[in-house]
Amino acid sequence: MDTSNDNQLNILDLPNEILLNIFNKLNTVDVLYSLVDVNKRFDQLVLDLLRHLNMTIISCFDRIFSIENRILNRICEKILPRIHQQIHKLTLEPHSMERGLLPVNYPELYSLSLINFQEEIFFQYLTGILFDFLHFN
């Protein structure tokens, strides 16, 4: 009895609905970093439907961590300019705040969540960076 299977399946063979379900189970940062620019289909699925950009990493112990610099660089330099006009909700932590908030305009933004800010740092941002952001947008 031959149990080999000549019909090898590939992730690209899955329908869009299944791929979207898979992508929605993953961390947004991981999806953006890993799947954008893989091919046109993934770009369309990931970028066209993205409305909430969460620029934090949550561990299995519910701890929130900063995004690695190389990943943050790629998202801020290559991806944010492509999606900034469709973002409705943005979640940032101190490490990603300046790079994720200031360089682009978010015309559809209605929710900004700031996570893991120490009180004194938060007030510095409120009087500096956030003032600039709110004033110019």
Q: How many strands in all? A: 5
What is the element string, with H for helices and E for strands? HHHEEEHEHEHH
CA-atom Rg in angstroms: 18 Å
Order of strands, widest sheet? 1-4-5
Structure description:
The strands form 2 sheets. A 3-stranded parallel β-sheet has the order 1-4-5. A two-stranded antiparallel sheet has the order 2-3. It has one domain. The mean pLDDT is 82. The protein is built from 7 helices and 5 strands; from the N terminus they run H-H-H-E-E-E-H-E-H-E-H-H. It is elongated. The chain has helices at 16-25, 28-35, 40-49, 69-83, 94-101, 119-127, 129-136, and strands at 52-54, 57-58, 64-65, 89-92, 111-114. It is mostly helical and 137 residues long.
Any descriptors?
mainly alpha, 137 residues, 7 helices
List the helices and strands and how they pair.
Layout: H1 16-25, H2 28-35, H3 40-49, E1 52-54, E2 57-58, E3 64-65, H4 69-83, E4 89-92, H5 94-101, E5 111-114, H6 119-127, H7 129-136
Parallel strand pairs: 1-4, 4-5
Antiparallel strand pairs: 2-3
What can be said about this structure in brief?
The chain is mainly α and about 140 residues long. The chain has 7 helices and 5 strands. The chain has one domain (about 15-135).
